Every structure is written in C-alpha cells, then in structure tokens.
Automatic annotation (TrEMBL):
Keywords: Cytoplasm, GTP-binding, Hydrolase, Nucleotide-binding, Ribonucleoprotein, RNA-binding, Signal recognition particle. It comes from Viridibacillus arvi. Belongs to the GTP-binding SRP family. SRP54 subfamily. It is found in: Cytoplasm. One of its GO terms (biological process) is SRP-dependent cotranslational protein targeting to membrane. This is Signal recognition particle protein. Its main location: cytoplasm.
Amino acid sequence: MAFEGLAERLQGTISKIKGKGKVTEQDVKEMMREVRFALIEADVNLKVVKSFIKRVSERAIGQDVMKSLTPGQQVIKIVKDELTELMGGEQSPIKFSQKPPTVILMVGLQGAGKTTTTGKLANVLRKKYNRKPLLVAADIYRPAAIKQLQTLGDQLSLPVFALGTEVSPVDIVRQALEHAKEEHHDVVLIDTAGRLHIDENLMQELKDIRALREPDEVFLVVDSMTGQDAVNVANSFNEAVGITGVVLTKLDGDTRGGAALSIRSVTEKPIKFVGMGEKMDALEPFHPERMASRILG
Ligand code: GDP
C-alpha cells in the first residue's frame, strides 16, 4: 500500500499525544523529531521537511494551543492542516479553454505512464466532463507508442490522430488541431515523446509544439515510485518548458510518499490526478485533504 511506512510512523507518533490534557514544548519537540524521521524515511525532500517541521512547531508551541482544553487534538489538527497545505491545499481542477478546443500536452519520461495516463484522462474527460476528446500520437521515436495509443483508443472507442513516424511531431500537432476543429473535438490530448533522460532535443520539440498553440494545460506524468527523482524530473521539465500540473502514477503500488509530499512545494505546481492502476478507469482527481487524512488515519 502507498505511504504505508509513513502512515504507520506518523500514526504511532500521533497516538502518543492524542489524549494529552497538557502538552509541553518538550512533547512537541519530541513529536517533531519523530515526524521529521518519518518524512525523511519516506524520501521527502529535505528542504520541504525542514520548512514543514518549522511551520508545525511554530503553530503547535503557540499559547492558544498549549492552553486549550484539547492540546493533543490541536497539535494533530495542525499537522493535518500543514500536510494538506504541503500537497496543495485545495483540489486543482482542469483548466478548460474559453475557446475550444482545450489543448492538453502530456509530457514525461519513458515508462512513467504517460501514454496510459493520456488514455485514462481522455476517458475521464468523456465520462465526467461530457467532452469529445481527440487523442494525438506525437511520440514518433518509439513506434510502439503510436500503436499503444491506438490500442487504448480502440479500447475506449475514442479516435486517435496519428500520421506515423515520418512526419515531425510539430506537423502532426498542427494537422491534429485542424482536424479537431473540423470534427468538433473540444479537447485535444497530445501524447508527446517520452525519453529515457531529459535532453535538449526533447525540450526543444516541446517548445516548438507550444509555439504552435499555447496549451491550456501541460501535464507532467511522473512515476511516484521514483521518489525524489520524480521531484527532480518535475523541476527540470518545469524550468525548461513550463508545466501547469502533475499526474502522479502508480500510487496503487507501495510508493513511500516522497514525490506526493514534495512535488507541490518544490515546483509550486499542483498534483492534478493520481494513477491508481493500469486499467483505463484508474485515474482519480488528487485531493490533498483526503490524502492527508489517509496518511494520518
Ligand atoms: P510511458 O512510456 O510513459 O508512455 O509509459 P506507459 O504508459 O507505457 O506505462 C508504463 C507502464 O506503467 C505500463 O505497464 C502501464 O500499465 C504502467 N502504469 C501506468 N500508470 C500506472 C498506474 O497508475 N499504476 C500501475 N500499477 N501501473 C501503471
């Protein structure tokens, strides 16, 4: 289960302070030491851990908490609030264009789950938002990627715009946008090239695609199992091309939590969705508060 170790440790720490009628500064300090270890063990970015501990400590050691009737509960609430804040506070909705089609660029490294997520997102857009999405196969470097998207399109009965591997991604996107207008698609989801590493060519290509038509969303798909690497990838993509949101995949696995807890704070971009499995219906909106509740029990 995701966050298992973190949840276990935090819940253990919390149970010690929960019913206390009196909480001393020493109690808070001890608790914070344990929370700090738990976060570091979950592979949370060190700077994020430090500022989190600082914020929680400052609030928890405040007079109104110490003198309240239920100080233990108050401290737990502060931890929960700050954990929620750390993950973005509010759920962040998809930004749709006033002037259709809405263009969503899907970016990420190979194997992160980008193509699968593109299919899942199209499914969400149709089912929950009543949209008519067009999937665009712009990853020409891995021939199997086009086939994979087409297979997903068939499975979902959704159209996939593909021009093979000989046409440049920029031309594919240009033609796809025209096609979308003709066929009245109100959302265009572009599956771009996933590479093994972030490289100049990949970034330039994304910039060229962006220059054609400013996308309404640029979703970076990252594998939550890769912890802080996911955070570094998010940072690099954000600096190079600019992202508007993150989709964290494989949260159905036993990810420790580092990516989910650090990405928002490091990149200042919201986690919009989480992948909860390989099937086409396994994509959920990310709710920071629910996630914090799940971790804290
Ligand atoms: P891409 O190279 O980034 O396009 O990655 P793919 O979409 O091909 O996905 C790589 C692998 O990860 C595939 O086996 C997917 O089924 C799997 N995958 C993607 N998202 C999830 C997820 O949320 N949970 C699980 N368990 N597997 C996923």
